[in-house]
Amino acid sequence: MANEAVDDMLEFHWIIDMLQTVDVGIVVLDREFKIKMWNGFMESHSGKLPSEVRDKTLFSIFPDIKPDWFAQKAKPVFELKTRAFMLWEQRPYLFKFSNYRPITGSEEFMYQNIILSPLVSATGKVEHISMMIYDMTDIASGKKQLEALQVMQSEALERGAKSRA
Questions:
Q1: Residue 118 bridge partners (DSSP)
Q2: Burial class, 29, CB count within 10 angstroms (exposed 0-12 / middle 13-18 / buried 19+)
Q3: pLDDT in tens, 33-82
Q4: Which long-range contacts (CB under 8 A, 24 or more apart) does 138-147 make?
Q5: Domains of the chain
Q6: Contact 26/132 with Cβ under 8 angstroms?
Q7: Is the per-residue pLDDT at 102 higher than 70?
Q8: Are the beta carbons of 28 and 119 closer than 8 angstroms?
Q9: pLDDT computed for residue 98 by the predictor
């Protein structure tokens, strides 16, 4: 039995290490939107330590996030146990993080996709939700560049058609 407990602790340790080092933001919020978990990605991009944000509301740390809007997004996650999505095409970012590749990147801020997921407790209730933040800046930048090239090509074709007429 003692070996099994040691194995469980070792497994728990590497799971926590993985959550801290994965290149995705992970935040756990309770029903009052107090931050319960803040991983290394969030620490790195926000400049805020987990100890600084723990048990504070998301809105006190990020006043640009509108509480009513966010609560509306989170409500089905808590109540219906379904996921909710925030895509960069609809809203470029939730967290106004600087683009961490300012030399190679042309974007000022990090574009983000966000997934809100229910965390079902042992009682079957959802008292916490997870928020996973994905950096979509490279994809957004590429799409914007492609769209700009398409506009330029279309304008060039129009000018060519007018000059032939």
A1: 129
A2: buried
A3: 999 999 999 999 999 999 999 999 999 999 999 999 999 999 999 999 99
A4: 138/105, 139/88, 139/111, 140/88, 140/92, 140/107, 140/111, 141/105, 141/106, 141/107, 141/111, 145/106
A5: 2-136 (3.30.450.20)
A6: yes
A7: no
A8: yes
A9: 87
